[in-house]
Design a protein that fits this description.
The complex is a heterodimer of chains A (392) and B (298). Chain A is of the alpha+beta class. Chain A contains nine helices and 21 strands. Chain A folds into two domains: 232 residues, P-loop containing nucleotide triphosphate hydrolases (Rossmann fold); 142 residues, OB fold (Dihydrolipoamide Acetyltransferase, E2P) (Beta Barrel). In chain A, the strands form four sheets. Chain A has a six-stranded mixed beta sheet, with helices on both faces. In chain A, strands 11, 12, 13, 14, 18 and 21 form a six-stranded antiparallel beta sheet that branches. In chain A, strands 15-20-16-17-19 form a five-stranded antiparallel beta sheet, with no helix packed on it. Classes of the chains: A alpha+beta (392), B mainly alpha (298).
């Protein structure tokens, strides 16, 4: 096992005009499962390929363990990589696919056989060893690709969106399997995905990239609950976080949030906990609230009216486990661009769209006027100019 | 109130029958036309086959299409044209040249193609363009300088001028064919092999080459057919009778000076000489169209 260190890692194309990876510094600990996540084209795969040695490094350094590997050939980096397309050799049997790296390393036949059988047992592939990849299902192929990686017993696993070709059900299953194998083997793993669910569920830590720049590296819980900026806040979470321009108003010791025509009272505990919030009194900022932090006021015991906004229901999506309700509120949406942001979609009558996750028992219907309770203790506040969180 | 919908099943059946009859008539007409064209095209071949099976004197003497006397005498006489030196020797010569040409083309062209398709090196695109340019060069332009060169190094009247260039990736068309095929193979396969520790040679030999089987099969088939049928090069480079190949030997049946020509033997041996090409083509037809299953990619 080994740690992986990225120091000011940079990759430019077109003579430096296009920066795919921009000054990324990251320390991945020995045995850690780190997920690199971000929208398409954010540079996450490029960063992974630089660690693998498949992409030349424009600037910065990569260390695997104590070894500086910028100029080391991929085969000498003691890594194994799982590709998005699995990259199984279609003319070889499953056995030969798994054995390939060992045969290349001229390992004795008995040892090769022992390791292949062991990997096949771990991955439940014993019955398929004689088959060709073309005769396997998507999940089995994925396991063969994993087998080829684990059989070498490398110091680092690099995985480039290995689940993106699987259907939704299989993806959930393989997600758990990969996490379990990594946990069992304890091999340092860098996992690239654009799927936030994978990012949140699999990794010890998540590194979020945008336009080649590292936005935040933290535990899944902190990424979700304490996003460092508006991009992280908007990218993680589905449905995405509702974000609006707002103004903080101070009356005696109480802070109020002016959201268009609406005014919400901020709890004293929040103001006490985050003293920096008071400095924004009288200023514009961006406020964010996740759909699950909104509820139907009628379902909350003693809901304070100053925490509620009444709005018309535009759309109801009953998911069974809960109900996603789209409402139009009087506010100016903050333009945070992300792949699954709904900012552009305006609500009816020019109002800003607000998405709430209601209890499955909710009876709200299209066209109803519903009173929505805002859990103001769970609100996120960002600087209007920098987009950085005020609470962190 | 719901309307009652009715239809006449008999009328529907009659219309269907009418459509069916028109379709059949059209089919018959088309087939008649195609069979006529086929007959026109096959007539010379059938005439040659029948001529090989009738006595020499009847070939141009008897105007009937079907021979009156059937005989295999032309085959025996044709095979033993030179007494001790039979067609067996000519076939052996042809097959040796074909086999070496196939091995040479498969190895050398695939290696050159791998370099052009997969490796990065200085001047790659210039070299590729020059290689493509050689395809435009007419054979007549190359013929005399090549002959002089081979004459000077003492290779004339050996099979070397016919075989050695194949080991030096001489056929630009086959390189181009393989380059196009290899470019279509997913990059990730080779990158996986790089991470697995495979060298250039191992990547070429163990990954790219087996996956290029359809392109290799095409190259093998066309190299065989081209070499086997290559009358001109074999005529100018092979002068000794015992080194002659099948197409060159077939010429011996005809006396260009107006002397006696053995047309019966010629037709019989032409018929036999078609066999290997036809056989090779049929045997490899499956390989040509099969292609390697690439479902392992996604």
């Amino acid at each position: 096992m080994a740690s992986v260190t990225l120091q000011n890692l940079t990759k430019t194309y077109a003579g430096g005009q296009l920066r795919a990876v921009n000054d990324v510094s990251l320390e991945i600990e020995d045995g850690e499962f780190l997920v690199l996540v971000g929208p398409s084209g954010c540079g996450k795969s490029t960063a992974l390929r630089m660690i693998a040695g498949l992409e030349e490094i424009t600037d910065g350094a990569v260390w695997i363990g104590d070894e500086f590997v910028n100029d080391t050939h991929p085969k000498d980096r003691d890594i194994a990589m799982v590709f998005q397309s699995y990259a199984l050799y279609p003319h070889m049997s499953v056995y030969d696919n798994i054995a390939f790296p060992l045969q290349i390393a001229r390992m004795p036949k008995e040892e090769v056989d022992k390791r292949v059988q062991e990997a096949a047992r771990v991955l439940e592939l014993e019955a398929y060893l004689k088959r060709r990849p073309g005769q396997l299902s998507g999940g089995q192929r994925q396991r063969v690709a994993m087998g080829r990686a684990i059989v070498r017993k490398p110091s680092v696993f690099l995985m480039d969106e290995p689940l993106s070709n699987l259907d939704a059900k299989l993806r959930v299953q393989m997600r758990a399997e990969i996490a379990s194998i990594q946990h069992r083997l304890g091999v340092t793993t860098v996992y690239v995905t654009h799927d936030q669910v994978e990012a949140m569920t699999m990794g010890h830590r998540v590194a979020l990239l945008k336009d080649g720049v590292l936005q935040q590296v933290d535990t899944p819980s902190n990424i979700y609950n304490k996003p460092r900026n508006t991009f992280v806040a908007a990218f993680i979470g589905s449905p995405t976080m509702n974000m609006y321009w707002a103004e903080l108003e101070k009356e005696s010791d109480t802070l109020f949030l002016r959201l268009g025509d609406n005014r919400l009272k901020l709890p004293a505990t929040l103001v006490e906990q985050f003293s920096s919030l008071s400095q924004y009194a009288g200023r514009k900022l961006i406020v964010g609230i996740r759909p699950e932090d909104l509820a139907e006021a009628s379902s909350i015991a003693n809901a304070d009216p100053s925490d509620c906004i009444a709005a018309e229901v535009d759309l109801v999506e009953a998911l069974g486990s809960d109900v996603i309700v789209h409402i139009g509120i009087d506010a100016k949406p903050a333009e945070v661009r992300s792949s699954d942001s709904l900012d552009e979609i305006k609500s009816k009558a020019g109002k800003a769209r607000c998405i709430a996750r209601f209890n499955a028992k909710s009876q709200v219907r299209l066209g109803d006027t519903v009173t929505v309770w805002f859990d103001t203790t769970r609100m996120h506040f960002f600087d209007g100019e920098t987009g950085l969180s005020i609470l962190n | 109130m719901a309307t009652v919908k009715t239809y006449d099943p008999e009328l529907l059946r009659a219309e269907r029958r009418k459509r069916e009859n028109i379709r059949r008539l059209k089919g018959l007409g088309l087939h008649a036309l195609l069979i006529t064209i086929l007959g026109v095209m096959l007539y010379p071949v059938i005439w040659m086959v029948l001529s090989a099976l009738r006595p020499e004197t009847e070939i141009f003497g008897d105007m009937g299409f079907i021979p009156t006397n059937w005989t295999l005498e032309n085959f025996v006489r044709g095979w033993q044209l030179y007494g001790d030196l039979t067609f067996t020797q000519f076939y052996v010569n042809s097959f040796i040249i074909c086999a070496l040409a196939i091995i040479g083309n498969l190895l050398a062209c695939s290696m050159a193609a791998y370099a052009f398709a997969r490796l990065e090196f200085r001047g790659k695109w210039w070299l590729f363009a020059i290689m493509l340019g050689t395809m435009m060069l007419p054979i007549h332009v190359q013929l005399i300088p090549q002959y002089i060169f081979f004459l000077n190094i003492g290779w004339v009247n050996t099979i070397l001028p016919l075989v050695v260039p194949k080991f030096l990736a001489h056929d630009a068309f086959f390189i181009f064919l393989m380059v196009q095929f290899m470019r279509s193979l997913p990059n990730e396969l080779e990158q996986a092999a790089i991470v697995d520790g495979a060298s250039y040679w191992q990547r070429y030999w163990r990954i790219i080459l087996p996956l290029s089987m359809p392109a290799l099969a095409t190259t093998a088939v066309f190299t065989f057919i081209n070499t086997y049928n290559d009358f001109f090069s074999q005529l100018i480079y092979l002068t000794d009778t015992d080194r002659m190949t099948v197409p060159v030997a077939l010429r011996l049946f005809l006396d260009p000076s107006g002397g006696s020509s053995s047309f019966g033997g010629l037709f019989a041996m032409v018929l036999v000489s078609i066999g290997p090409v036809l056989g090779f083509f049929l045997a490899s037809q499956r390989l040509l169209t099969k292609g390697i299953a690439t479902q392992g990619f996604k």
